[in-house]
Write a structure and sequence with these properties.
single chain, Thiol Ester Dehydrase, Chain A, 36% strand, 143 residues, alpha+beta
């Protein structure tokens, strides 16, 4: 196992989610295409909710609520490359009645690759109008 694959060298991250870099994630230079970090962050948020007991399809079916990305700020610090094992974290920075700001980071070992600040809003699926985040979600992520 290489140092890049060792989760033991990564800092303690909130809600860590491992992702392997595949060919499809890279650009012509062999590094992760910048927009793919948004996909990695989305996967980590989905798995964070799932680990808290919130399945997004079930949430939509039972409450009509779904989450949408309203705003993204990204900072790129170092490249990830083919076959790297990266770890993406998710942490709630702000929580409102109908939206949350999440801070996310992508790490390869002790190297911080990218940082994001993502505002997700809760909307009613059939109208796409803002609505309160269901209590069951707030309870699940508070645990």
């Amino acid at each position: 196992m290489s140092a890049a694959d060792s989760a033991a060298t990564a800092p303690a991250l909130p809600n860590p989610f491992p992702i392997r870099v595949y060919w499809e994630d890279t650009d012509a230079g062999g590094v992760v295409f910048y927009a793919n970090y948004l996909k990695f962050f989305e996967r980590a948020r989905t798995e964070w909710l799932r680990a808290a007991g919130v399945g997004q399809r079930a949430l939509r079916e039972s409450t009509g609520a779904m989450f949408v990305v309203a705003d993204v700020q990204m900072r790129y610090l170092a490249p990830a490359k083919l076959d790297d094992l990266i770890t993406v974290s998710v942490q709630v920075a702000e929580q409102g009645a109908a939206s949350m700001v999440l801070v996310q980071e992508a790490w390869r070992g002790n190297t911080l690759l990218a940082q994001g600040r993502i505002r997700i809003g809760c909307v009613q699926a059939d109208t796409l109008k803002p609505r309160r985040i269901p209590a069951q979600v707030l309870q699940a992520i508070a645990s």
